[in-house]
Amino acid sequence: MSAPAPALAKPLLHLQDLTKTYHTGEVEVKAVRGVTLEIQRGEFVAIMGASGSGKSTLMNMLGCLDQATGGAYLLDGDDVATLDRRQLAMLRNRKLGFVFQSFNLLARTTAIENVELPLLYTMPLTSAKERRRRAVEALERVGLANRLDYHPSRLSGGQQQRIAIARALVSQPELVLADEPTGNLDTRTSIDIMGLFQELNDSGITIVMVTHELDIATYCKRVIVMRDGKVISDNANAERRRATEALAALDDAEKEANVA
Amino acid sequence: MNMLTSLQNLLIQSWQTLFIALPALRRNLMRSLLTALGIIIGVASVIAMVAVGNGAQAGIQAQVSALGENLLTIFAGSSRSGGVNSGLGSASTITIADADAIGREVRDVVGVSPEVSTTAQAIANGRNWSTSIVGESPDYLKIRNWKLTDGSMFTDREVRSAARVAVIGSKTALELFGPLNPIGQSVRVKNIPFVIIGLLESKGSGMGGQNQDDRLIVPYTTVMKRLTGDRFLRSVNVQVAGSDRMEVAQQQITALLRQRHGLTAGHDDDFNIFNQKDIAETVTSITGIIKLLLGAIAGISLLVGGIGIMNIMLVSVTERTREIGLRMAVGAQPFAIKLQFLMEAVTLSLLGGLVGVLFGIGMARLVGVFANFKAVVDVSSILIAFAVSCAIGVFFGFYPARKAAALDPIDALRYE
Prior knowledge:
The complex is a heterodimer. Chain A contains eight helices and ten strands. By secondary structure, chain A is an alpha/beta fold. Chain A is globular. Chain B is an alpha+beta fold. Chain B starts with a helix and ends with a helix. The relative contact order of chain B is 0.18.
């Protein structure tokens, strides 16, 4: 799209002392208390933490679904705090893709229509033909080109999450945000989905993922751990696993089990 | 240019949104149909009611104009004896000379027919039949806009000679002669033989419900001299040159009669003048009120239909909170969400309106079959009903749509 940016010139995400405080009646809840971090293009980051650690709140702010109470959040150089609802929607549409724990696919709507959804809200508008072309492309990318007209209810959990990933990819976002994407899936399917994320990351897509499973975090390149609204550790993942290898190992283990 | 592009964008966006709205409505087909039914009934009843109102109005107006055009009727005043009021035309105040004077002296009067009447047994062809014997002048048919199907009207000469000739109503002719042609036949009234010289065209029942076709019309002189012996007239029918002259003619006749009857300033008129235009206007205003009333009742049902749409749209917004959250997350602007729900509401009400128009026309036709007047569906009521149903969709869809657009995406996504 644009000219290649000079390396390390501008991080994709820049968070400076970001805070979020909720007021529920008399009680003041400080969900996020001063997070400062940078995420570069091409990273694959896991944000970990127990429930209540503030990781979901942070994720909502990263996804421009929620505004911070204090500090600054620059997404691709734009100061998110200055934007109104309409502009935030436009920003999400252009730069972000979402993957949820519960897939959030529209029932009684075909796979391809689900994937086309973000393209209905582009500015300028996208033609029906172009929408379909790009949705088919995205579904091909997640390996579901042969399930275009299936309704989600006829697909397995893993396939449904793949459709959701295709939906996140269809608008060619700068950043894919995944909130517990494997939370509703079994081990094998989880690894499978992580494999897909690794594949996408290899092709240059930046991914930030929230998870509470350490096992899942090991597939990422960088692991950030949060507790009580603060980052307590932020390290590169030295022992990064490849999902393809993990799957092969799983197959071997099953074979052995069957032989025995 | 910029305006044009944004307008174009809005149109394309609306068009795209239609393809979100339609499947959503189809998914809840039964619910959509029931919701639209409110509008269908509302629109159908507006159209049918207005059509019935129009038809009734046209029917009554036709009856009023059948009285004759630009007609003034001068009745003798009421007579009073011992506290008993005998009603209009019973007093003996108007004479033939008065009628002649009106014809002679009042400008714009183009026809005068003195009227006397009695009821008697008519005997002919071996049958007998009680009927009205009405004395008139030759002007009468012109004044009443009445035609003969056969024969001719009597002449002024026959009036002067109190000739024993009669023009017969179609009903009377049927009773006395059956299928025979009555022209040239003789009919006896109070033992006096009349020759039938004309057959009146059928006019049906009049304003008061009496059958206008059951009568014998004879020269008024004949009634007065040969049948009743009266020296006074019951009334005088007067035709005026144009509807704009009615007022002036009425004033002049009043002045003339007061002068002729020697009435001074302190005395009331001893006659009454009925103005056909006044009657027509009264009737029009009454039927107008009836029409308005029918329309208002139908309009209320349209309103109820609109509330039904709002209700269902609110349910729909709640049910689809997660969907709304998702759409917002993937970049739908609040306006796009608003447009989607507004589109659903408008689609419901417009489809309801369309079906309602068809039903309404059908209902109007049905009423036309069973009632004795034709229900007139006018295009304006169709257009209005259609526009109103569209407006109802926007109006009652607006609140739920705004509610949907105001949702917080995070809360909406978490909604169970």
